[in-house]
Amino acid sequence: GGGTGASPLAVSDVLAYINDSEEAHGGATVPRGVIYAVKLFERLGGMQGSRRVTDDPLVMATAEAVEDRLARGGNPRGEALRLPLILTIALELYVVDADNKLYSRFLAGCVLIQAWACLRYDDTRGAAPHRIVTRPSFFDIELERTKTSGSGAGRTVQHAYLSKRAGFSGEPWVEVFMQLFEHPRLRIARDYLIPLPSPGLEGAISKIAEHNDVAAMTRALYEELLLPVTVKSGCDRTVRWTRGVKKLLPAGWADAFTLHSPRKCLVSWGSPLPEVARDHLDLLGWHSKRASLGYD
After folding, report:
1. What is the pLDDT of residue 42?
2. What is the largest CA-CA distance in the chain?
3. N or C: which terminal CB in the chain sees fewer CB atoms within 10 Å?
4. How far apart (Å, rounded) are the C-alpha atoms in residues 43 and 51?
């Protein structure tokens, strides 16, 4: 059938796109990613019940069938891919560029903070901005977890840390990102890190962005990034990174990364450094030695 007044998409449109992904030999996560992306905009548009095309049983059944066929025809699934170094540089440049959409800049900073502080998406659900403490050389990010069963039921607090000097581009993305929390259109009371965007991506609303929402928005962000280039400037001809004009990723390549990709990066970045002990690398991402060893 045709789309509704609130949504131009019809069930047939979504089914056609999912089937096209199979013919194009896309990744196994593409069909479900399509549904998550459409569902995000349905939520933002306030669509309910039968008006949501993603609630049609045929849509999910088709996505699962195509996903299964793509998975059987591809390589076995392994651990999440690390973000390429050039992609993290592109994200840093994106955060500090005031010409980009406000919420998209904030989202780019959230990806970077997950990389540099080894945070999972679930960690961000308990990372309230008002509980981030400024230290002389780093930010102390308080992570609150809720356990509802067992002998340790209740709330526990753990900590992650973000260096003020984190980064590769030379741009002060950490400082800029932290300032975004105080922007009038992003300064909303919440006990989680990532809210849903407001219309036009020019701010945020008081509602948590769920895992599927963040996955869809992050893929869209990756596809928007431009390839960084180096230029020489100043009297000493210092080399610095700047935004280029070409797209960083070919169409569809963003599907290779998941929300686990950022937190896999720091171990890889630190591994070649002789002054970083191996046992320290092994502890990255474990914010509590006693409480979180079974969390992953």
Report:
1. 80
2. 65
3. N
4. 11
